[in-house]
């Protein structure tokens, strides 16, 4: 029996695993769901962390630390709230409505992002990833 190594939440390894979502499932493309989203996460063990997601046709094709040029949407959140979201303890809609995820930019792109976060493929993949993640 092989044991998979744990991955630190929001590390480069974690984001590289998140990118594998595109290849790991038989997701059906959604032509109109394209978004460049920047995250700024406060209160992490490393202070603040910036990372981004690039979604094309409803599929996360890039996840990396740093800043994405021409972000259409920016989300600022506390580390504990993002961890609760990834663990499945905080629903995305609740986080956005309550301000736990502060959003700036094109609000229509937020709806696109919600389609991605709301998909069963995303939930299954992230649940597996989260089971191997330390935070």
Query: Gap between N and C termini, in Å?
Result: 25 Å
**Helix-strand pattern:** EHHEEEEHHEHHE
Largest beta sheet, briefly? Answer: 5 strands, mixed
Q: Which value, in Å, is the CA radius of gyration?
A: 14 Å
Estimate percent helicity: 25-40%
**Given the helix and strand composition, which structural class is it?**
alpha/beta
Q: Compute the average pLDDT.
A: 89
Tally of individual helices: 6
Strand order of the largest sheet: 4-3-2-5-6
Morphology? globular
What labels would you give this structure?
135 residues; alpha/beta; five-stranded mixed β-sheet; 7 strands; globular
Structure write-up:
With 135 residues, the chain is α/β, with parallel strands linked by helices. The chain is 38% helix and 31% strand. The chain contains six helices and seven strands, in the order βααββββααβααβ. The protein has helices spanning 12-19, 21-24, 79-87, 92-98, 107-117, 120-131, and strands at residues 7-8, 35-44, 47-56, 59-65, 73-78, 101-105, 133-134. The chain has a five-stranded mixed sheet with strand order 4-3-2-5-6. It has a two-stranded parallel sheet with strand order 1-7. The chain is globular and about 35 Å long. The two termini are 25 Å apart.
Question: How would you summarize the topology of this molecule?
Answer:
Elements: E1 7-8, H1 12-19, H2 21-24, E2 35-44, E3 47-56, E4 59-65, E5 73-78, H3 79-87, H4 92-98, E6 101-105, H5 107-117, H6 120-131, E7 133-134
Parallel strand pairs: 1-7, 2-5
Antiparallel strand pairs: 2-3, 3-4, 5-6
